[in-house]
Amino acid sequence: MCFSAEADFVSGVVVGTVGVATLREVRDRRELPLAALPLAFALHQITEGFVWLGLEGKISDSAGNTAMYGYVFYAWALLPFFAPLAVMLVEPERRRRRIMTVLVALGACVGAYLLVAVATNPISAHIVGDSIDYRGVGDSGDLVTALYVVATCGTWLLSSQRHVVWFGVANLAAVALIAWNQREALTSLWCIWGAIVSMLFYLQFREWRSSDTRPVREAEVAPAG
Q: In DSSP terms, which residues pair with 131 in a beta bridge?
């Protein structure tokens, strides 16, 4: 089926249901950002549903523009920092956390740059085929996109938690395929794919709960004796 407002609303409800279930599996506050990602992705897709309605003239321009700015703020400014941070907080291995810290800092820089772009540049959205093309980054778009992918997917791939790694693999493959085949729709298509595969986080939390184990940071383990 074609991507549309209805597709975004349906995916948002489905992923949101899983997101609520994931939050119920939290046993430590450090797990909360990672557990919140599926629900955040779901709300993001619902927001894009309203972007579709605005572009199709089914809601007012002001409502459509508000949805568009909310959508790009999450996708461009918040996600490149929040997602790596969420993974780093639950990573038990000190060596991996140190590397992730660098990527979290990179994501923060990318997010800050894109936040300025959202605040100072004219942001636009247009329907292109079965997706939405978001514009407003300017000539540095390719470099910023590359750094964005390094910060987000790099952190997921470094994780010692297998479903988090699979999430990173799936997203890296998706961004490569979309960039090669339908580059102008990268933000829209990658985010809906990210929303769907974020349900892997629920499996990770269920795995932790079923085995009665949680990732324990190396620094928190007291030395023997």
A: 128
Q: What is the pLDDT of residues 165-181, one digit of tens each?
A: 888 888 888 777 766 66
CA distance 59 to 42: 21
Alpha carbon distance 164, 157 (integer Å)? 7
Stated pTM of the model: 0.82
Amino acid type, 192: I
Long-range contacts of 180-185 (CB under 8 A, 24+ apart): 182/129, 182/131, 184/128, 184/133, 185/128, 185/129, 185/131, 185/132, 185/133
Tokens representing residue 211 in the block: 């085995």
Question: Tokens in use for 90?
Answer: 């639950």
> What are the tens digits of pLDDT across the range 126-158?
888 778 888 887 666 678 888 988 998 899 999
User: How far is residue 17's CA from residue 40's CA, in Å, rounded to a whole number?
Assistant: 11
Nearest to 41, CA basis, from 11, 68, 64, 63: 11
CA angle 139, 144, 145 (to 5 degrees): 105
